[in-house]
Specification:
24% of the residues lie in helices and 28% in strands. The chain contains eleven helices and 20 strands.
């Protein structure tokens, strides 16, 4: 799920134009509409795929608003026709009550992000398309408008969501094949595919998707490391021999993670016993400032690069209190940890480290590696997927490393 800042109370409901025209117009006014996909976005409105109670989410502020179609129809429709992500399920369906739940587990993605990924996919009429992560079904409907409903198969791990999406697609005039199953396995019966698109965040890429895609076919997937929640869209092209897929990243996003790859957060108490000072076996000072380390935005490229270079590591950025912000690193294969304390008005930050790895030293080395190569952006990085796993690279696949 990826978002820009949203007014929690849009000032007006939909105008006299049909909803699809309003959403399409807003994307055009924002300068993000691709002429190649104008017809699909004009013909396939989002609102018929949304539940009567939904939770538009603002990732910039962390605010989630409960909106009921029955109670506030104009506000509901205004959000439906806006370029915002909308949570449609909490806690894998166990949530009850009108308020937000604990963990958002399904959503209608931000339309501009949907458009961007469809543009990367470059699906053409007649292409066979596999859509992983049905959700509401809107993405599958957009694809069906483009390539034909009989050419699209969409897979959803949640049986309830699959059963909701199937009739929604039918009512919209796109009787796409909806499969209740594990998207990691793809869907062999309808393979091979010309295009595969994934609408959940991945931490490990299954080779099954490569195996089920034709040579020259394209796989578009949000991917990231265990370092944090940040993802980047990878556009992978299957090699002529069909044995691998490789391609550049196209930009940052953040999606809900594949259910089997969410992973638990590190248990702090199992790493640090007592005070940080007493638990550390190494103390130092870093000249790496908070702004250089974290960047100016949640999608700063250096955060993503640190994840590419620090294998088996999770970072946690704590809240700022009394002018100080701790940043933690936790080893995922052992009990190594590090903490840097950034303080307002101080050029240097104290660092404490414990365990067999010196995680902060590794982070500084990763940052220096990125800086010394000209601080490359997302578009210079890429991935290659083979039967042996996934490797990341900078500029050329020949310069790769395991991730």
């Amino acid at each position: 799920m990826n978002a820009s800042r949203v007014d929690p109370e849009p000032g007006h409901g939909p105008d006299s134009m049909d909803g699809w025209t309003l959403l399409g117009r807003r994307l055009r006014e924002a300068g993000v509409m691709d002429a190649d996909w104008t017809g699909a976005f004009d013909a396939v409105p989002r609102h018929p795929f949304l539940p009567d109670v939904m939770w538009p989410h603002d990732m910039a502020t962390g605010r989630t608003v409960t909106v009921s179609r029955a109670e506030r129809p104009e506000l509901w429709r205004s959000y439906a026709d806006s370029d915002v992500p909308i949570v449609t399920q909490w806690d894998d369906g166990s949530h009850t009550g009108p308020g937000p739940g604990i963990l958002a587990t399904s959503s209608a993605s931000m339309p501009s992000v949907v458009l961007r990924m469809l543009r990367d996919l470059d699906a053409r009429p007649g292409h066979r398309v596999l859509d992983i992560g049905t959700g509401t079904g809107w993405n599958a409907a957009l694809l069906a408008h483009r390539v034909g409903a009989d050419q699209v198969v969409t897979v959803e791990v949640d049986g309830v969501l699959a059963e909701r999406a199937r009739p929604a697609l039918g009512r919209a005039g796109f009787p796409v094949g909806v499969v209740h199953g594990d998207g990691l396995l793809g869907h062999p019966p309808a393979a091979p595919y010309d295009r595969v698109i994934v609408t959940c965040g991945l931490r490990a890429l299954p080779y099954a998707w490569v195996r089920q895609t034709r040579p020259g076919g394209v796989v578009v997937v949000p991917w990231g490391t265990e370092y944090g929640q940040q993802d980047a869209v990878a556009r992978l092209v299957v090699a002529p021999d069909g044995r691998s897929a490789s391609g550049h990243l196209t930009g940052p996003v953040e999606f809900m993670k594949l259910r089997s790859q969410r992973g638990p957060d590190p248990d702090h108490s199992s790493y640090v016993v007592g005070s940080v000072r007493d638990s550390a076996d190494s103390t130092s000072v870093t000249e790496l400032t908070e702004s250089r380390y974290l960047g100016e935005t949640p999608f700063a490229v250096q955060r993503f690069v640190l994840g590419l270079r620090l294998r088996g590591c999770r970072h946690v950025v704590a809240e700022r209190r009394d002018g100080a912000r701790p940043v933690w690193l936790y080893g995922l294969t052992d009990r190594s940890w590090a903490c840097a304390l950034f303080r307002d008005g101080h050029a240097d930050a104290p660092v404490w480290q414990g365990g067999p790895r010196r995680l902060w030293d590794e982070a500084e080395a990763a940052y220096a590696w990125w800086r010394d190569r000209g601080s490359p952006g997302y578009e210079r990085f890429g991935l290659t997927v083979t039967p042996d796993g996934t490797r990341a690279w900078l500029d050329e696949p020949e310069r790769s490393w395991d991730v």
